[in-house]
């Protein structure tokens, strides 16, 4: 499952540079995560780096984008090949 950023985001700018897949970008009001690029850092790290650095814990799993670890690994491999 990919991650999402909730309205509690304070636009602190610490999550975007931590994403190895460039899945995080500034949206109209808060940062957003592109579910097509988010692998929860599978293939790069043991834990999602954006969640690790977020000072307000506003990056939960996105219930609208449920994916298994295996699916996330395939997505990681496709992103690396591109």
UniProtKB/TrEMBL annotation:
Pfam families hit by this protein: Fer4_7
For the 4Fe-4S ferredoxin-type domain, which residue ranges apply?
1-29, 31-64
Q: By its UniProt entry, which InterPro entries does this protein fall under?
A: 4Fe4S_Fe-S-bd, 4Fe4S_Fe_S_CS, PSI_iron-sulfur_center, YfhL-like
**Which Gene3D superfamilies did the record assign?**
3.30.70.20
Keyword Plastid in record? no
A Gene Ontology molecular function term for this protein is:
4 iron, 4 sulfur cluster binding
List the GO cellular component terms: cytoplasm
- Signal peptide per UniProt: none
NCBIfam families cross-referenced by the UniProt entry = di_4Fe-4S_YfhL
Q: What's the protein called, per UniProt?
A: YfhL family 4Fe-4S dicluster ferredoxin
């Amino acid at each position: 499952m990919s991650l999402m950023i909730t309205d509690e985001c304070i636009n602190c700018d610490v999550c975007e540079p931590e994403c190895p897949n460039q899945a995080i970008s500034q949206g109209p009001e808060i940062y957003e995560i592109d579910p097509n690029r988010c692998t929860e850092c599978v293939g790069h790290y043991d834990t999602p780096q954006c969640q690790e650095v977020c000072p307000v814990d506003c990056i939960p799993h996105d219930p609208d984008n449920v994916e298994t670890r295996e699916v996330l690994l395939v997505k990681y491999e496709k992103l690396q090949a591109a």
